[in-house]
Amino acid sequence: MSDLLAGLAPWPTGDFSVFGEVEQRPLSKIQKFVAAFLGRNWVAIPHVTHQDDADITQLEERRKAHNAAGGTKLTAVPLLVKALADGLAAFPQFNASLDPASGMLTLKKYVHVGVAVDTPGGLLVPVIRDCDRKSATQIAEEVAALSDKARTKGLSMAEMSGGCITLTSLGHIGGTGFTPIVNAPEVAILGVTRARPVPVPGDDGGIAWRQMLPLSLSYDHRVINGADAARFSRFIADRLAAADLFT
């Protein structure tokens, strides 16, 4: 890391109060912790972000019907986690970690997915374990429980360790795409923003409106090439479009 930073100019500092009124506020402990790792990851990992769209029209219809029937409510997050679990099985290079010093790539046989949680103190990423063996309902219950712990400062380091890939969703806020930072030692992270209605050609020659979900896949270009990233994104989009992720 020191070699990467050696040629950079020093960080600009100064007395900003000469320009006008200011207020100084310390970063929270979580912000300091996250900043150190995100800074390292951004500098050390050659990031590329692939953008795609998933047609979630049928998925949303099924999700709303599921919720109307009672029981555990489903958001899009557990369904995205299920799609990612399928993606890791189909594309093992995404379920890997690189040791730059030795040049060794570790391929993992387990499927644990981190889910970014926005808390008052900063961003935390609890990990849902063995997602390939769980239903969407089970995942939804775990996401809710771990998110509550994250927001009440009850999350342990063990509950934030061992992830294979991370999901970060801004769909409840908005946006059309962004560049999420890879959460090392993982090699990819999927970001999603708000679904939007898009007109597409209908079967009858007219216009059909479909709900399209923007996908933003950032990946470590040392491990994953652009073509495989495009295939992985399309696989995730196809799994979402199939609308069979509930079991």
Automatic annotation (TrEMBL):
Which Gene Ontology molecular-function terms are recorded?
Answer: dihydrolipoyllysine-residue acetyltransferase activity; lipoic acid binding
* GO cellular component terms, A-Z: cytoplasm
Question: The 2-oxoacid dehydrogenase acyltransferase catalytic domain covers which part of the protein?
Answer: 21-242
Biological processes annotated in GO: pyruvate decarboxylation to acetyl-CoA
UniProt cross-references to Pfam families, sorted A to Z = 2-oxoacid_dh
Which co-factor is required? (R)-lipoate
Might you give the EC number(s) for this enzyme? Answer: 2.3.1.12
Checking InterPro entries in the record gives: 2-oxoacid_DH_actylTfrase, 2-oxoacid_DH_E2_comp, CAT-like_dom_sf
Keywords, A to Z, come to: Acyltransferase, Lipoyl, Transferase
Its UniProt entry gives the catalysed reaction(s) as: N(6)-[(R)-dihydrolipoyl]-L-lysyl-[protein] + acetyl-CoA = N(6)-[(R)-S(8)-acetyldihydrolipoyl]-L-lysyl-[protein] + CoA
Which residues are in coiled coils?
Answer: none
The UniProt entry, under Gene3D superfamilies, shows:
Chloramphenicol acetyltransferase-like domain
Q: What family is reported?
A: Belongs to the 2-oxoacid dehydrogenase family.
Q: What does this protein do?
A: The pyruvate dehydrogenase complex catalyzes the overall conversion of pyruvate to acetyl-CoA and CO(2). It contains multiple copies of three enzymatic components: pyruvate dehydrogenase (E1), dihydrolipoamide acetyltransferase (E2) and lipoamide dehydrogenase (E3).
Q: Subunit notes for this chain?
A: Forms a 24-polypeptide structural core with octahedral symmetry.
Q: Under what name is this protein listed? A: Dihydrolipoyllysine-residue acetyltransferase component of pyruvate dehydrogenase complex
